Amino acid sequence: MSGNTAARSESTMLQKPAGKRTSPLVSAPAAAAQSIPSMHRRAGARACSTLKPKERMFWRLACVRGLLGFMTIWAIRIVFIENDLNTNRIYASTDESWRLMTIMLPYFIFEEGSLLYFDYRFKTFSKELHLHHILAFIGFYFNCYCHTQHFYGLKIFILEMSTPFSCICFCLLKLRMERTLAWKINQLILIYVFHFRTVLELMIWYDIYNDWSYFKEHSPFLQMANVLIGLIALTFWLTPYWTYKKTAQFFHPVDWDLQKNTEKQLLRKKEDSKEN
């Protein structure tokens, strides 16, 4: 009897306590909620895997540019809120402006190098982006080397505030979400941001006009020429061109590269039909 009692006591000690049962009505929504993020991740992974190599690389570059665009908030705080650079728009600098400058300089080296590789690999040539990146790199190089014009450099950098919305636009297009409300809202914001870029460019021109004598006397010639050439290109070519393209894209939501390829195919078909 004592042996049987000891065996039963040992078996009860080895048994695991029964877990608390959950109602199916409670566990089902919880399981569904946990599965939603994984479903989105799988959907995103499938969408990225279906992209062509050219689109996949451009996707990654667009995401990097989009992340950089959020740093314009930092530049806005330095230029418009702290306002220390406004005391002397040629020679004034702060620790914050130096930190941002030293981030921008290597970034545009990376950006131009990546774009050169992209164009070489996929046999393309983005003249607008090349001009934009080269002028930006030269400008930030002079800002760091000559210790001048941090005010103008950061104020021009604020124009990059459009890049996060451009990134979202491209990604949603590739996810085939161009007919969704999210894409339309983002595209409208992007168009208005480009209009604000025009306003900001005019503000920079006005600052240079007010400081012209001091600006011309104390700025190194090459740096001054780079700023003026860059502003002319932005004001009269790049920003109006990109504003037009993004506005047209709102009404006809297609990728520019895809649109170019489609137009080439249509031209080839017309030529073939004429020959036949």
TrEMBL record:
UniProt cross-references to InterPro entries, sorted A to Z: TLC-dom, TLCD
Transmembrane regions: 58-80, 100-118, 130-150, 156-175, 187-209, 221-242
Bias (Polar residues) ranges: 1-14
Origin superkingdom: Eukaryota
Organism ancestry: Eukaryota, Metazoa, Spiralia, Gnathifera, Rotifera
Membrane topology: Multi-pass membrane protein
Pfam families recorded: TRAM_LAG1_CLN8 (PF03798)
Protein location: Membrane
Cellular compartments per GO CC: endoplasmic reticulum; membrane
Any Gene Ontology biological process: lipid homeostasis
Keywords: Membrane, Transmembrane, Transmembrane helix
Protein name: TLC domain-containing protein
